Amino acid sequence: MYLIDVAAFALLTAAGVLAATGRRRPAVLAALLALAIALVALAMLHWQAAPAAMIAAVVAILVQRRRAARRVTRVAARTLFVLGILAAAIPYYLFPLFSLPDPDGAYPIGATRIELVDTARRGVLEDRPDEPRRMIVQLWYPASSGDGEPIARYLPRATIVTDAGSIARNAFHYPFELLHLAAVPSHARRDAQPAGGSHPLFVFNHGYTMYPAQNTPLFERLASHGYVVASINHPYDSARQQFADGWSRETTPLVVTPAMAEALGALVKDQSVAAWRRHFPAYAAAAREDRLMRSTAAWLSDTRFALAALERARPPALAGRVAHSVDFSRLAFGGMSFGGGIAAQACVEEPRCRAAISLDGVTYDPAMFDRAAGRPMLWLQSDWPRYPLYPNQLRDPRTHPMDFAFRQWAAAAPADDFRFRVKGAGHLAFTDLVRMFRMRTPPAVYGTIPVAEIDGLIGDFSLGFLDRFVGGRDNGFPHMQQRRHPGAIRHVPAR
């Protein structure tokens, strides 16, 4: 709850107490004030305040009546009032008005978003044949000052109905349940002036059906430590994102071909090298004909285009001033789930990339298997023995399907390949969705890890990894992070 919500509940409770002690006029006044404050909260998109507003209105009407009531009636009314207060608190519990963790870096944070159009690519995914590819890139960056500009909200209010509704549907919830994300404050200032100096760039790809802001605590923390973060949305494969001119596209349901499902199932069921050598040709043939490979090509092209657009951007536009502060020779990629695989592949294909981070990432491109990455890689993976990614996946902590990606099967894991299994973490624990719902659907997708622990773990490992391999600092990674987070268990793929 935020302060305004607490005030509404405090006044509503006071109205009940005053009415119970016979002080009707102050009770009516308190109920009306509670109603007014709850309505203001509703106007701020705290939809959780709706039950409190209704109860306040009922209390004001009933208390205003001066008819005497029998004792039984009074007891029943008080009981119903208490139950009503408890019921009004349920939406706040199930769908919390959360606060983001405080960044611990020295820089104030700015945030903005830019819209890009790639006229050279048309008919991408479900676009019409003559329609150019469009995408949104959200930026978090070191700012010159922490004052003057408005605080950025978690999601923009102007597009909240479109954006939050799609995010909720993709997470198996009702669209209204995330409207309050437009009221959640971040630690960034919207369109703040960028700080001077030269800063490394971290390019992020969201998870399949997800959205660019899905790891805001990580992005804010990196920006506070001097990184520029560019998070790309991929229309049709992301949650719906509305552009300034009203253009938007809903998520295309993913349909995997039967051949792909069968071939992938055979790989994850038996994760020995011999089995993979036996089943991989069938998988490669099926993957090349699957929708996932069209998405892979589109996302990689989106990433290359966004990077090139940032490089071309010049002042005086804000995006140009942010880009002017970027040292493009200190480049890293990151992503989650499908986006984690894209990040690793983009790093392999981009000569300037120094490192990549994959948050429970997966790749489906046959070309990325039995192939050395040649770059430092950080893999933070879910607790697959408890919460496997795939049906029939082998629940052996010694082996994971991505052990066969971005490394050569016959070679030992390179020294700069860091893979960790995070105990208690389900797949979506690596997103901000883990803080948005108390009743998570399905629970195994989130796991049992506390929000504060997964926030700290992702931030500590990511920052330490980037500081070492992009910043060139001898900072003791990963031993310091392992001591701080013993639930991160080092996983070394077997040959």
TrEMBL record:
Cross-referenced InterPro entries: AB_hydrolase_fold
Keywords: Hydrolase, Lipid degradation, Lipid metabolism, Membrane, Transmembrane, Transmembrane helix
GO BP term, pick one: lipid catabolic process
Cited Pfam families: PAF-AH_p_II
TM region(s), chain numbering: 35-63, 75-95
Highest taxon listed in the record's lineage: Bacteria
Keyword Hydrolase annotated: yes
A single MF term (Gene Ontology): 1-alkyl-2-acetylglycerophosphocholine esterase activity
Gene3D superfamilies in the record: alpha/beta hydrolase (3.40.50.1820)
Protein name in UniProt: Dienelactone hydrolase
Organism: Sphingomonas lycopersici
